[in-house]
């Protein structure tokens, strides 16, 4: 996602949305591969349907996140605010709840994705690192 963080927030919405969609689709493919290996569908067609459904769902979540984040940055006129990322994550979580036909899933995913996305933004702004040697 290196290209996602390049440039000011709230600009280049189509490029940011496309990048988030591609990352979501890739994550969906990886998740589908694990699901197919662990749950062993009955036929090759069932495996293909599972892979397609999982990839499309994750790509949709990525697109919703990218678009919601970018549009909220434009509308709110506060491009560097982590609240934009919370809004994007919450919107993606709500879509997941709609896909699952569950209010509980949507609410939980909204909060989980929103908080995670906001923390990612805060960490990126402040230079947090997940891996590698510590900065001294």
Automatic annotation (TrEMBL):
Family: Belongs to the complex I NDUFA11 subunit family.
GO cellular component, one term: respiratory chain complex I
Membrane topology of this protein: Multi-pass membrane protein
One GO BP annotation of this record: mitochondrial electron transport, NADH to ubiquinone
Gene: NDUFA11
Keyword field: Membrane, Mitochondrion, Mitochondrion inner membrane, Transmembrane, Transmembrane helix
Protein localization: Mitochondrion inner membrane
Name recorded for this polypeptide: NADH dehydrogenase [ubiquinone] 1 alpha subcomplex subunit 11
Principal localisation: mitochondrion
Species whose genome carries this gene: Lonchura striata (white-rumped munia)
InterPro entries noted in UniProt: NDUFA11 (IPR039205)
């Amino acid at each position: 996602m290196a290209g996602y963080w390049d440039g000011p927030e709230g600009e280049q919405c189509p490029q940011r949305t496309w990048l988030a969609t591609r990352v979501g689709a890739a994550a969906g493919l990886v998740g589908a591969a694990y699901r197919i290996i662990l749950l062993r569908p009955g036929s090759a067609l069932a495996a293909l349907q599972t892979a397609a459904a999982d990839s499309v769902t994750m790509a949709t979540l990525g697109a919703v996140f990218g678009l919601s984040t970018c549009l909220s940055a434009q509308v709110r006129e506060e491009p560097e605010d982590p609240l934009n990322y919370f809004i994007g994550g919450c919107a993606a979580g709500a879509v997941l709840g709609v896909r699952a036909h569950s209010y509980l899933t949507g609410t939980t995913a909204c909060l989980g994705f929103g908080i995670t996305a906001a923390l990612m933004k805060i960490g990126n702004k402040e230079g947090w690192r997940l891996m590698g040697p510590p900065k001294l």
